[in-house]
């Protein structure tokens, strides 16, 4: 037997249960049953303005401040990584103290991982130059491009007037023959300078041999 005049129906659109002990939401002021009275169960739009809770750090048992709408686990995790003074949190921060330099990344590593181009420290995920948009490799590529653009002076790029200044009125064959003649003349000069020294050495050798021959002759006569 139903008593529709007793109690009230739940305001949640998929429930509409007749509850003899209805509950009123303090945020949206609607009536709900005991199953849908919580803000998250009836998707209360004004619940975020009323549901203000301060999370507590499980390590130091201190309240953690957080902005409205921020998830409590994110606020507690940020507190443990930066501000918590408990022994486990401090020890963890001392071990993982090499923070990634990429903007937006909060990972830390036990050992430093530095980029050879920009010399900044990064995590394992962003250690490659292409993963952190390395500024150092861009500068090196620009310098290499500028170096390639510099003019290179070779024999083929010399102007005809410069070639004529070097060779004069001679062509290539004449210049080559002239260079060979100069080298042969230098070789003859060096050989001529060495001949007097050779003749003096031969005269000294003959002078040392002549007394020996005279001594041998005197021995034979006796």
From TrEMBL:
It holds the Pfam family zf-AN1. Keywords: Metal-binding, Repeat, Zinc, Zinc-finger. SMART domains: ZnF_AN1. The lineage of its organism: Eukaryota, Metazoa, Ecdysozoa, Arthropoda, Hexapoda. The keyword DNA-binding does not apply. One of its GO terms (molecular function) is zinc ion binding. It comes from the Eukaryota. GO terms for cellular component: endoplasmic reticulum. One of its GO terms (biological process) is protein targeting to ER. InterPro entries: AN1-like_Znf, Znf-C2H2_ZFAND2A/B, Znf_AN1. Residues 197-222 have a biased composition (Polar residues). This is Putative zinc finger an1 type protein. SUPFAM superfamilies: AN1-like Zinc finger (SSF118310).
């Amino acid at each position: 037997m139903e008593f529709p005049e007793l109690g009230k129906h739940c305001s949640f659109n998929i429930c509409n249960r007749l509850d003899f002990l209805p509950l009123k939401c303090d945020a949206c002021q609607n009536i709900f049953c005991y199953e849908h009275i919580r803000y998250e169960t009836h998707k209360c739009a004004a619940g975020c303005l009323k549901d203000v809770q301060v999370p507590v750090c499980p390590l130091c048992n201190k309240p953690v401040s957080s902005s409205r709408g921020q998830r409590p686990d994110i606020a507690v995790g940020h507190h443990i990584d930066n501000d918590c003074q408990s022994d486990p949190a401090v020890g963890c921060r001392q071990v993982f103290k090499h923070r990634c330099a990429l903007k937006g990344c909060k990972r830390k590593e036990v050992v430093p991982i530095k980029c050879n181009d920009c010399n900044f420290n990064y995590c394992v995920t962003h250690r490659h130059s292409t993963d952190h948009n390395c500024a150092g490799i861009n500068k090196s590529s620009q310098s290499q491009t500028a170096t390639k653009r510099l003019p290179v002076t070779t024999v083929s790029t010399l102007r005809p007037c410069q070639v004529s200044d070097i060779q004069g009125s001679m062509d290539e064959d004449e210049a080559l023959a002239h260079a060979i003649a100069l080298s042969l003349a230098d070789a003859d000069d060096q050989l001529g300078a060495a001949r007097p020294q050779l003749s003096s050495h031969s005269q000294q050798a003959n002078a040392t041999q002549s007394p020996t021959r005279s001594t041998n002759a005197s021995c034979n006569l006796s």
